[in-house]
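Hi F.,

I've been meaning to write this up properly since the lab meeting, where we talked about keeping a consistent format for the predictions we share between groups. The idea is simple: the sequence comes first, exactly as it goes in, then the C-alpha cells exactly as they come out, then a line or two of notes. No screenshots and no reformatting. I'm using this chain as the first example so we have something concrete to point to.
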Amino acid sequence: MGECCINCFNNDHIINFILENGNIGKCDYCESEEIETVETEIIGNYIREKLKLAYENVEDSGIYWDSELKEYIEGEDIFEILAFNEGIFSEKIVDKDNQRKLIDDFMTDSGPNWHDISQGADDYFDNGAALLVLKNKYFGVESNRFISNWDRFKYQCKHYGRYFDFGFEVETRESLLGTLSKILSHEELKSELKKGNQIWRARVLSEDDKFSFDELPKKMQKEIGPPPNQNVKNNRMSPAGISYTYVSEKPETCIIEVRPNYGSEMLVGKFEIIKDLKLLDLTLIPYYRVKSIFNPEYDHDMRWAANFLEQFINDITKPCMKDDAILDYVPTQLLAEYIRKEGYDGIKFYSSLNDNINYTLFFGPELEDDWRLKYYDTIKPFTKIMQLRELYNFRLNDITFNKNKYSNREYKNEDFEIKKEDEIDDFFDGSVDF
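Output, unedited:
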C-alpha cells in the first residue's frame, strides 16, 4: 500500500480530502517530502465513491457487445476518465509519468481483498480495468427529472389545468418548474445585452395603419415598437394580451421572423440598448459545463440539463399547424414567464430560420396615459431599455436588406427628450375625491 500527496493532484476537492484525512509524510509517486499524504486505499475508496455518482460498468449498462470485434461499442477506461475527462493530475506527477501507476494502486488497494473475492465478492470497477459509461447516456434518459418534468409540465398545463393547480396526486406546475432553478442559476447560461449594443425590429404595415413616415420621432418609435396589449395575439413566449418585445441581431433576421408576404410594406428599425440587460442565453448551451464529480454539489442530472433546454428551444422555434398553435404555445409561454419571474430581462436564442440571434425581451409597449398606471402593475415599456436610431420604410420586393434602397430617418437622443410643451399633467394629483 502506497502514499500519495496533495502535489499529485490539481483538483481542489481531492486536495481538500487529503488535507482532511492525511498526515505529513513522503509521497511514493511524485516524490515530494514533508507533505500531506494519504494511503492509496483511502483515496481509492473516495475516488470509487465519486465515480459511481456518474459512471457505470459497461457490462451492466446494456450497451451493445460487438461479437465480431469482440468489444463493446462504447466505453472509457478509468485512466481516460480521471486523467482527461476530469483532469485530476498535476504536472508534477505527469512529469514523473506515474499517474497510471497511481490509479492502478489505489483501485487495487481499495478493491475487495482475496478473502472477499473467494467468498464471491465482485469488484464493480474490476480493480481499475473496467470500461465505464455515463449513467443514463444511452438508456434511462427519459427518467431524468429535467426531461420527464418538461414533458409532464407540458401535459399538465395543456390538458389538466391551465391556471390553477389541482389535487395532490400530481406535482404542481410551480414544483415542476422549480426543477429549472438550478439551470437558471448557472453562470454559464447567463449573459448581458450591454448598453450601446444595436438590435433590430420589423413590422409589417397593414392598410389600416394611419400615420406618415415623417411623424415625430416618439410617434415612429411607438409605431415600430411592440403592439398594444389589446392587439397582442398568441406567440411562442407571450400569450394574447401580454406584449413582449421581439428583436433580432440583424435586420434580415427580424424581417423573415415576421414572415411578410412578397410586396408587403414594412417598417424596420435599428435600436440602441440604453440599459444593461440580464439574459438567459440559450446560445451558450454547447458551452455548458457540469461540475466535477468530486465537487460536493455534483448533480448527475445536471449533465442532461442541456438536453432539457434543447427541448425548450425546439418548442419555441419549431413550426406549428395553425389549428394547434394556441395549445402548443401554452407550455412555452408559461416557461418564459417563469424565466421572467426568476429575474431575467429576456431570452437570447438562435433563429430557426437562419443562424442569427433573436431576443425576447420582457418589456412591453409604451402605454397611453391612464389613471390605472398609478395603481396597476404593468410591464415596463420598451423605451426604458432601447431607443430608436434609424427607421426604414419600404416595400419588400426581395429578401436582401439594402439600406440605400429604402427611405430612412435617423434619430438622436435629443429627439426623444421630454420638452415642456410635451408634458401632460397627471390625471390624479392625490387629492381627487370620488
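Notes:
The radius of gyration is 30 Å.
The first helix runs from residue 12 to 21.

If this format works for you, I'll send the rest the same way.

G.
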